[in-house]
Records
---
Amino acid sequence: MTEHHIKPYGDTLDDGIVQLAFTLPVENSAKASKAAEAYVSMLNFTDVHVVHAEKIADNFTYFVVYAKAIPSLDYAKVQVPTAQYEHMEFYEINALIADQLHRRITVIGATIGHDAHTVGIDAIMNMKGYNQDYGLERYPELMAINLGAQVPCETLIQQAIEHHADAILVSQTVTQKSSHVHNFTELVELLEAEKLRDRFILIAGGPKISNEFAIELGYDAGFGPRTVPSQVASFIVTRLLQKQEHKGGNKT
Amino acid sequence: MPHIPLNVDQVSRVKNLAKQIADQVRDCIADYSTLSVERTVLRLFGVDGVDQNGTPLANRIVDLCVKHGDIGSGISTLFTQALLHSGKDSQQTAELISNGSLDLAKLPAIPPEKIEHKLHELTSTAIAKLDNSKRIKAEKIARIPLPPQPWRYLIVATGDIYEDRTQAQSAVYAGADIVAVIRSTAQSLLDYVPYGPTTEGFGGTYATQANFRIMREALDAESEDQGRYVRLVNYASGLCMPEIAACAAIENLDMLLNDSMYGILFRDINMQRTFVDQHFSRLICARSDIIINTGEDNYLTTSDAIENAHTVTASQLINEAMAKNSRLTDDLLGLGHAFEINPEIENALLYELAHAQLARELFPNAPLKYMPPTKYKSTDVFYSHCMDTLFNLASVTTQQGIHLNGMPTEAIHTPLMQDRYQSLISVNYIFNSAKSLGDEIEFKADGFIVRRAQQVLNETEQLLNDIQQCGLMDAITQGIFADIKRPRDGGKGADGVFKKGPDYANPIMDQLEASA
């Protein structure tokens, strides 16, 4: 593979320009700005310019800093697992389910743990959807069950079994003290303990979720901010078709 | 003030419909009380603290009353009887009942007139606490003036009350007029009020009387330093609405989030429980001069902000009518709404102005609570900051009362200290540079904004007509608000509702209802 070295871009290739903003717990003074500059130098930047320093509370100063990054990175060596699916639209997805799966798909969703935020799960599941993209409830070929917020993992699993769900969507918005990691992990562990993990397509969602992170936690996929319902639906259908192919053996 | 000429007959029609809807609810709940209401009575009588298991004494005693006595008569008379028998004060009597030295089931008979006399004394002391809270706040405001509206409302949510205090101090330094301490997300479902200072919780820390006191003291000091009175907010929602209202009054809080339907819709709390608890909590707010903040913004995060604008207006009208039935005056009604229209929609700002101005026209004397964009906030913090700037402009132009500052990092995390600072410099800039813009504007009579406001009002009138026909409780079972359906007898906390017996007494409630 040919090497492809990159650095941050300001206005000239490989200038390495980066903007930073942060707060230090000291009073604003010439010494404080010098400290900000010294600190950014310690992070392996050169040409450090503290362009703005402002007192934002007693003993706290906010800085905006521009600096040049030193290292470069071989882009050819970067690997990222993305959810393998083609993004289809509403009609295409429904047609695919009707033609190839010959049955309605059931998707169950919830915000688990103490987290009371339904904004994520609602954006994907509610009829209205998000950003002009219909929610899963609107799909004639999908049965979408939204259990809402503060659902215990046990309840979610029990409901998923009862409704013969094909996919489970789990949302977490609160990330304080890594509560989302704890909750996501708890669900996977419960499913594995009950030997149910392979029965469902398990999907994580939330503002701090990436696909890579979700896979690391044992999920099939993860969807972060700005995800629209048709992306999630596309993934579910693609994965179900793959499962069907596996079961049906080689259909050449 | 920019003006939308509304049909005065139509305005009085919608207000009248809302009044009828509120009166129907009042009649439905009149024969019921809740365990939370009874615990509130004990707290106002002076019962505080927890037993060796960490259970609040107010819970212990009401639970014992349910077990051994007749809760249908309410706690007031029985507790007074126990107090007379013990010869001690409320707190000591509560401790004796809790540790088993005093058995509620075996109290000796005491002449009714003696009980009545003592109960009257306890009630007067309780009411005096609420009056005292009102007086203390009025004195502070007389000495350190209130800033002009819109008041800048900032949130702290570190999950640790002491860290929250540091964050609050920085927010006040940067210009906050109001500080809200976010509760732990699970608290609305706790059927008791946690005790003591807390340094844990998810998405916030617990609402406790001790936490209220810690933050009030810090803000009092900041108010003196900055020369403007900084208000403190917490949440009276969930299963302990009236108890939290009582704790807030005792600690001189200025505002409480307190919506007529929020708990039912978004926390699946039983309807009857919510309406009974809410009435008592609002009576306490009215007497102690606490501004309520209603939660209509929540409808728009789950439903579409254009399609469902009329549900916000209808809910505001119902909240207003129910609040008036609980003696709240216009100056205490922080009726809610939000800037939540998809920013990609053409003329989104015109829709927002129409909705905000309609609220301003319908409730000219209420300090309207205006919530920032959240649903379409981007993880591009710079774009999010632009969205907030437009929100700030809409707020100052339509002269809103309580302005919840949007955060550039809304879509990412609970605010960092520097996020609050960034938010406030934008608000300060816009509020100052567009201060009198609203006074200069008259909207075109047949223009987009006036026509849109009229359309929302027409849809509101239609919706209120429908709700009035079936009653609010049935309307909720049909999913009229936020597309969420809740059954009449379902939901959490239903087992804490009880029918008042023939001997039921709650003189605190009676006196609060009687006061003008």
---
Amino acid sequence: MKKQFAAFLPVILFALIFAPSAWSGKDTIRIGINAPITGDIPKVGEGTKFTARMWLADIKTAGGIKIGGKMYQVELVIEDNESKAESAVKVNTKMITEDEVLVIVGPQASKQAVPAGDVANNYKTPMISPWSTNPDTTKDRPYVFRGCFLDPFQGPALANFITEEFGFKKAAVLYDVASDYPKGLAEFFKRAWEGLHGGGSVVAFESFTTKDADFSSQLTKIIRSGAEVIFTPQYYNEVALIVQQAHELGWNKPIVGSDSWGSAETIELCGKECYGLFFSTHYAAAGATGTTKAFIDCYKKAHGYVPDDAAALTWDSLRIVQEAIQACGAITGNLEKDRQCLRDALARIKKFNGITGQMSFTEDGDPIKCAVIVRISDKGEFEFYKSVCP
Amino acid sequence: MAFFFQNLINALQWGSFYALIALGYSMVYGVLMLFNFAHGDIFMVGAYIGFAVASGLVALASMGAAALPNWLILVLTIIISMFLTSFVGMVVERVGYRPLRDAPRASAAITGLMIGIILETSNLALLGARRVRFPSLIESTTYNLSGVFVTNKKIMIVIVSLSLMLALNQFVRRTKWGMAMRAMAFDYVVVPLMGVPINTIASLTFALGSALAAAAGILFAVAYPVLDPYMGIVFGWKAFVAAILGGRGSILGAALAGFLLGFIEIFVAMIFPSTLRDLIAYSIILLILTFRPHGFFGEPYSARLRL
């Protein structure tokens, strides 16, 4: 028995090693989804996964993607990056080299998208990050694209909004220094705010590190600095803690956030404390029309809650990829050639009508689109407040 | 001045958690001469058990099955969770440490790390990666004492932690079981020969430490109501630092060092840029240990440990 098994072992190993390439027939296109299914922002990962499956179901009902008169089937490779930079890099490498995907959609957060984009670019594999707003994700990387606006736009947009809306002159910033997205956005906001109100008008620029739960010393400092508003570009789990602790320390002025707030989880974790606060985001679910509404309804019917912005942007990114694949004209089966062809097709897209609004693309593969300022209503819904365009 | 007192109050709350968790490390080390590196994760398990108990009681109360006011739910949650988590601690001891009691200390330390990972990942498997919000059982009221803001939660947390520490101290000083623990800490080779049941004492030590960690977990969840499976890791490390700083095996030392750690962290962030908080805070602690390598109340020889 033992001997028999030993004889079979090389065969099994051989099969295991070469099986993935054996599955991928020529009429199948593989798309990698690099999502944070566990870790810090699992809700975003869940939305990504659900949206990708919804898109795949649409493709399946249509019988596949039609490229140059031939129908191709699509296969999704969904992998978890645990919301960690190093895992996102690993996932990208695995999907590119072992799973032989044509294109990667994700990772979502800049913390993972910035390092993972480097891998995709080195392997000359097109990647589109739906939600990463940090400029470094696509900068000098011809193979990396994105589906959302950038922090250099979001920072000033928020600074302008706060100035116009409240007429404040002194702002405080509280951010996670160990994460690319909050750190980048905090700096863009500071620059924009000081551009509007002069040097020193950001009276407190306080930071903490990922996984911190107590912000009392930073908030005490902020309150003493005489700031009129706190800007905190954090993810939803920290938002809940920061807002509650600020209120417990006697802060009753506005707290403003960025697109990382726009998750279904924010209200669940933060509760009433967050009512009445503002943040900028990519789309507002309440009061949506047309294809946006169709998407929201379909998602809500299947999963029971309103999709967040990361899900909507994932949908748009997948549609952009779909359009580019079709524009490519033909799939040769030579992965290197097809990836190059897809990249060129993506770079050629000039205008796209997505569910998160109309966008046009710059040379770097970055979209130009409007941001939405959302107010968290007294029922805990994300209400459209106003639109800020570049 | 208000600024200083505000930070003092913040530090008092923050230090309570470190102190409660450090006690668990310290007791286990004192009695069994091993570092229970899974202790930070027992704190996490305690918080989650508290979450389950509190949610259950809230559901029960809202169905009208029992007229429970929220403060009573909180008290019951703390008591029931301490009780349940002490069993988790005893199981950890029975499964993880008892078979290795005569193995090299390094094996036991590694076991602790592995049990920690098992607890984290089994939580992940059981509940998924979603964070949970601990039900808000007491409505937060903020008092403004001439510029210093204190909430009823903060007061409650500090009072409950201090009373638990006092209760532990009384238990160890005044009861027969406490005496057995102290004797074991003095010499865990000879004392069992005198008829003190080592296995029972080991279980008891783990149960007490875990119960305190559970209390810390629930108090933590009251103040910072977002729970995630990895919340115990960094907290465990830092409380371990407090246990060492207090002097291994010393209850008073662990409690004081826990508070000291909280004070150092908060006041460093008060004076220096908050980015440098942990860098400066833990450099200070390294410096203290350089001059007092056995901590505040530790003895140079482990045979003379006191509990």
